[in-house]
Every structure is written in structure tokens, then in C-alpha cells.
Amino acid sequence: QVQLVESGGGLVQAGSSLTLSCSASGRVSSSTMAWFSQAPGKEREVVACVTSGGTIYYADSVKRRFTISRYARKNTLELRMDSLKQEDTAVYYCAEDTKAWGRTTTRVSSYDYWGQGTQVTISS
């Protein structure tokens, strides 16, 4: 059983940077890992994901601003967020797709394990 624990959220001003971390208790080296966000009143959607082979997908809204990184030895996933905007305000979730088989997967339903989420709030 994998447990995912996010950290690093908080309240920052627009234009600032923030790094989220996700620590996995189980072995995740063969899975696709992702960050999702869910803003109030909206559906959860993928922000970025990275396969076991290192292929990365970014949502258009975060390209050239966010960077996803995974550290297999430490079972850790990070999301570096630069040039933050108010519309980035959301709860951010770490997730694992154990059946991706090297594919970038973007649907919520594809992911088997989820963290509890960490709040990111961007002020003007």
C-alpha cells in the first residue's frame, strides 16, 4: 500500500515561487506520478505528470512556469512553481498511476493513489 504525503503549500504573492514535495512510502519507481490541482467549484485536473522513464507532460496553463521532478532513490516527487498567478490558487494533490506502463496519463480516474492535498493560495 502506497501512502503519498504532500508538503510545501502556503500563501504567497503573485509572481512568487513555491515548491511542493510529495513523499511516497511505497515503491513508485515503475509508476507515472503526477500533480493535480482542484480550485474551488472546479474539477480536479492534471498539472503535470512524469513517467518512470522520465517523459513529462505539462498542462498548457503551466508550461514554462512549473517544473516537475521525481527522485526515484528518495521516492519523492516535486513541483517547482514559478511566476505564480492568482488563478493557480487551488488544492494540489500528488498521485500515482501504477498501471501507466510508461505512458503519461492525465485523467483523474487513471490514478490509484492520492495524497491528502496541500493548499496553495496566491494573493494579488
Description:
The relative contact order is 0.32. With 124 residues, the protein is mainly β. Helices cover 0% and strands 48% of the residues. It contains no helices and eleven strands. The mean pLDDT is 95. It is globular.
Short account of what is shown:
By secondary structure, the protein is mainly beta. 0% of the residues lie in helices and 48% in strands.
H/E element order: EEEEEEEEEEE
Beta-strand percentage range: over 45%
Main pleated-sheet profile: 7 strands, mixed
Discrete helix count: 0
Shape: globular
SSE layout:
Layout: E1 4-7, E2 10-13, E3 18-24, E4 32-38, E5 45-50, E6 56-58, E7 66-71, E8 76-81, E9 90-97, E10 113-114, E11 118-123
Q: Any descriptors?
A:
globular, 124 residues, 48% strand, 11 strands, mainly beta, 7-stranded mixed β-sheet, 4-stranded antiparallel β-sheet, 0% helix
